[in-house]
Amino acid sequence: LNDNPSQYILKLSGTLRSPKLDFHPPFLMLTPVPLDVETEAVITIFPQDFIRQSCITVKPPELELADGSRICPFSVQFLEGQEIVLSSDGTTNALTCRISFRSSKPMSVLGELLFIDQEENRSLEQQTIVFLPYTPTWHCTALIKKL
Asked: Coiled-coil region(s) at which residues (predicted)?
């Protein structure tokens, strides 16, 4: 100021946190059903380290059958909306989600449900699902891992 140059050193520090999703329960068990009958489970998703409001979408796996046709036997419905809302104290709301499976053809599935925020951020954790129809029950295992 006033032709008097002054030097200031400004030090900034911070913590980089990536948004993530925690799933509860971490293990789902879906009952076996006849062909073309729906089975479902409800999970709760706990968003962590989001710094702004976001909307979560889900990309279920599309599967190729032996005849070359493609189907998506999974559907996902958010029971109370899919908006992640930050409260004034920095916490986020939990999301309740219904995962459904229906197939007119017998199949085993190893696939991933990708949970993606509105900015197409795929560094979010994901839920991997496994259906094993050759056991007394079909197991849907949620494995949390980074992309």
From this structure: none
Q: Which domain holds residue 95?
A: 21-145
pLDDT in tens, 114-135: 888 887 766 444 555 555 444 4
**Residue 130 and residue 61: Cα distance in Å, rounded?**
11
CB-neighbour burial class of residue 131 (10 A; exposed 0-12, middle 13-18, buried 19+):
buried
Predicted structure pTM score: 0.71
What does the pLDDT look like over 79-109, one tens digit per residue?
Answer: 999 999 998 888 899 999 999 989 888 877 7
Radius of gyration of the chain (CA): 21
The rounded distance, in Å, linking the Cα atoms of 95 and 103 is: 26
Copy the structure tokens of residue 54: 């976001």
Under the phi-then-psi rule, with left for phi > 0, alpha for psi from -120 to 50, and beta for the rest, what region is 36? left
- In angstroms, what CA-CA distances link 138 with 30, 39, 41, 68, 112? 5, 10, 12, 24, 16
CATH number at residue 43: 2.60.40
